[in-house]
Structure of Hydrogenobyrinate a,c-diamide synthase:
Amino acid sequence: MLSPSGTPRPSAPTGLLIAAPSSGAGKTLVTLALLRALRRRGLAVAGAKSGPDYIDPRFHQAAAGRPSINLDAWAMPAGELRARAADHAAAQQARILVVEGAMGALDGAAPDGRGSAAELAEALALPVLLVIDAARSAQSAALPLAGLRALRPGLRIAGAVLNRTGSPRHADMAARAVEAAGFACFGALPRRDALALPSRHLGLVQAAEHPDLEAFLDAAAEALSAALDLPRLLAAAGPLAPPDPDEPPRRLPPPGARIALARDAAFAFAYPHQLADWRAQGAEIRPFSPLADEAPAPDADAVFLPGGYPELHAPRLAAADRFRAGMRAAAARGARVWGECGGYMTLGEGLIDAEGARHAMLGLLPLETSFAARRLTLGYRRLRAREGLGWPAASGERLSAHEFHYASILREGDAPRVFDATDAAAAPLPAMGLRVGRVAGSFAHLIGPGR
């Protein structure tokens, strides 16, 4: 096939989606090991993550040497997923896209599982590689594959990788059962405690905080290369579904022309696709570090404090005088200031850490939050912008978002709320967020325009 210039058009990138019957089976390990193993072989490979996850894409980037993005089948229609996947592969000059699923292959939002890894695989036309934790099974290792085929007959199943096998004999029994059931088994990873990733309350410890990430990734790649038939696995990859030019990605507008972005270990949860969308619309993004006591750029007309772990760094944030003065100056000059989750807590008056100590925050919103009284809040959110908000949506416009935190709200003061909200099943939720002038935020992580 020729391009408009008459030169041969390169073939479509290929890819695999790595899924599992449940969380904890080893998807992240297999994804990272495969990304690093392919990179070490000189192949141009990039990663992507199914659903709302900020941590895994940073590990993908470390393993592949190329940025990773989120592809969310709950918040993004199929045409947008195809466009974003194709754009990402092209931008990274990747010939192979390795997509990591979330939870179990069929798990998604209530009530019907929409947004699952299987739905994403179908939208992108990618084969699914199922990671099976075989630690407590042998011949029964074939059951998840047979069940997935029965429940989702239109899904392309590449085959399986067995994880946490106990001996060569154990691995052989499980692999024979998988092959006898009509599925490819590409190999078995033996149980190795050294290949476990450390975690904390919101998931894995961030990639930048891993004590020796490069050595871990190389060890995982070597283990996978020794255990799996990589040429056979690569041959099972399929071409990405082509994008429809009539279905371009839907983008949130940038909050300003010059955006100061908080970025460090306390404020790491900004979606790569969102930042890329803002740049594509002409915005300039200028990172700064509150933990290093840096202030936002003085000529920024917007400041974005994304989510992260301010509760782990609350004393340093409370003592960051230049950061505090710069944020207050930005608000005083009328810059748009937006905080999500951890950023929202930082815009408040005080944050109580897990030990019960209170730390003064920026005082730009009438908000007190606490980690001493932990309470899990988790789920997708449908949002409707309230009057006077202006950004990220005009009054009445809808947005897709998610919420995931353990903080409790002790007090939200007398200020306009930001969003009316429902959960994924359309059950009403209390109004979210606070706004004081052009300073606003909420616990919702915005994904994009509403569906």
Q: What stands out?
A: The chain is about 25% helix and 25% strand. Confidence is low (pLDDT under 50) at residues 1-9. Residues 258-449 form a domain with the Rossmann fold fold (CATH 3.40.50.880). The two ends are 35 Å apart (CA to CA).
